[in-house]
Specification:
Elements (H helix, E strand, L loop, with lengths): L2 E5 L2 E4 L4 E8 L8 E6 L6 E6 L6 E3 L7 E6 L4 E6 L8 E9 L9 E4 L3 E6 L1
Parallel strand pairs: 2-11
Antiparallel strand pairs: 1-3, 3-8, 4-5, 4-9, 5-6, 7-8, 9-10, 9-11
């Protein structure tokens, strides 16, 4: 069983930056893909970014491509999401996840989730 704990959320003005972290424990972190999703009030959870087990493969949603960067440090069992040029529409609770079992990584069927961290972008 893996435990995921997100941190780094907060309130930022539009155009600003935040760096989210997700620390994993309880299982071999380096063997699994990691992903970030987000959920805004009244909306479904949506894919943001994902990274392969060794960091060589990364995927982004169209809405964050070019602004967000996902990375991982397997020695620290941590995955990061660097968010730049933030927009009010990026406001959401951000979740990290591991062990995808859906048809693609964009599919929200991932086995384990963190509790989420709130990101609020003011205009």
């Amino acid at each position: 069983q893996v435990q995921l704990v997100e941190s780094g959320g907060g309130l930022v003005q539009a155009g600003g930056s935040l760096r989210l972290s997700c620390a994993a424990s309880g299982r071999t972190f380096s063997s699994y893909a990691m992903g970030w999703f987000r959920q805004a009030p009244g909306k479904e959870r949506e894919f943001v970014a994902a990274i392969g087990w060794n960091g060589d493969s990364t995927y982004y949603s169209d809405s964050v491509q070019g602004r967000f960067t996902i990375s991982r440090d397997n020695a620290k069992n941590t995955v990061y999401l660097q968010m730049n040029s933030l927009k009010p529409e990026d406001t959401a609770v951000y979740y990290c996840a591991t062990d995808p079992y859906g048809a693609t990584w964009y599919d929200p069927r991932w086995a384990s989730w963190g509790q989420g961290t709130q990101v609020t972008v003011s205009s």
